[in-house]
């Protein structure tokens, strides 16, 4: 009899990722992607809170998590999705994307 997979195992597996998540941070990146998607477009403290949390924990994210965050910000920009206030929030999202891109370059991944 085969062992049933744990919920979410397939979400975190990526053959292309150079850095695999450790057991302790296995779902942290997924939760942060959800938080990022939740706060996109909000004009509250939440985007800054989530971006700052992600910056502090970037070392715990695998490559796929970072790529997903970059793709989500790109998608919002490309489709005209609200990124919050154009003068306050939007520049913060662009700075956060630049931070994520810098991390992928530091790891040797193309942006």
What brief labels describe this structure?
single chain, 5 helices, 111 residues, mainly alpha, globular
Question: Any overview of this molecule?
Answer:
It is built from five helices and no strands. It has helices at 9-12, 28-39, 46-56, 63-79, 89-106. Helix 3 runs parallel beside helix 5 and helix 4 (63-79) runs antiparallel to helix 5 (89-106). The longest helix has 18 residues, at 89-106. The protein is globular, with a radius of gyration of 15 Å. It starts with 8 loop residues before the first helix and ends in a 5-residue tail after the last helix.
Q: Major sheet, described briefly? A: none
Class computed from helices, strands and strand pairing:
mainly alpha
Order of helices and strands: HHHHH
Annotation, overall tally of beta strands? 0
Question: Helices and strands in order, then pairings?
Answer:
Elements: H1 9-12, H2 28-39, H3 46-56, H4 63-79, H5 89-106
Quick summary:
With 111 residues, the protein is mostly helical.
């Amino acid at each position: 009899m085969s062992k049933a997979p744990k919920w979410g195992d397939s979400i975190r597996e990526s053959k292309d990722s150079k850095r695999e998540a450790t057991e302790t941070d296995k779902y942290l990146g997924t939760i942060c992607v959800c938080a990022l998607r939740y706060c996109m477009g909000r004009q509250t403290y939440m985007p800054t809170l989530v971006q700052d949390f992600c910056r502090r924990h970037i070392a715990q994210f695998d490559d796929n998590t970072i790529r997903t965050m970059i793709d989500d910000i790109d998608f919002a920009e490309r489709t005209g999705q609200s990124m919050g206030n154009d003068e306050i929030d939007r520049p913060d999202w662009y700075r956060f994307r630049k931070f994520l891109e810098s991390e992928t370059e530091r790891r040797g991944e193309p942006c």
